[in-house]
Amino acid sequence: MSQQPSFRRRSAPSRIGPFTIAVVLLMQALASAQDLTESALKAAFIYNFAKFTEWPADVLSGVEPFVLCVIGDSAVSDALERTVKARVLAGHNLTVSYVEPGAQPPTCHILYVSGVTAARASQLVARTRDVPVLTISDLNGFTELGGIAQFFYEEGRLRFNVHLDAVKRARLKISSMLLVLAKRHD
Question: How many CB atoms lie within 10 A of CB 180?
Fold first, then answer.
């Protein structure tokens, strides 16, 4: 009776670490939670964008607060305030500033734009072009206008696209752990 050689299957080295898996599971849980409002879900995504993005050292020096601006969606602004309350990001307190759709936003680290025309969104993107501001919107075609990230729904889940050229122009670094969750990044 001849014995068959036994083969041990070697697993390929994992490219996805435990932290990445945790982020993916968190984002999926947030996206599928039924008792979560759309505004709270968007606020959670915006906060996670802040956590997984790196700004140039000269932008976040000192003790000034990290400012998240919301234009045109007071419900997201309120939800974002609840989300970031008493949290600190890279040693900076987080503040949320709501801006009326026609007003000029203050200096922001993140600018979320909603409820405005494409022309107004284009103006806001142009104003932040080449400036380290993470621009996010739920407007169709926002990344084509030069915005960095765009929310959309697919099969009932909140998803997002990322425009990598706009990220580079803004001198930001978005973690690969966040980019892996993007539907499309180009």
Answer: 14
Residue entry with tokens 């984002």 = 27
| Residue 101 scores a pLDDT above 90 | no
Mean pLDDT of 117-123: 94
What's the pLDDT band for 35 if we cut at 50, 70, 90?
low
* Number of residues that make up the chain: 186
Q: pTM for this structure? A: 0.80
Contacts of 147 (CB under 8 A, 6+ apart): 113, 121, 125, 135, 136, 137, 163, 166
Rg (CA), the chain: 19
CATH fold for the domain made of 18-185: Rossmann fold (3.40.50)
Q: What does the domain layout of the chain look like in residue ranges?
A: 18-185
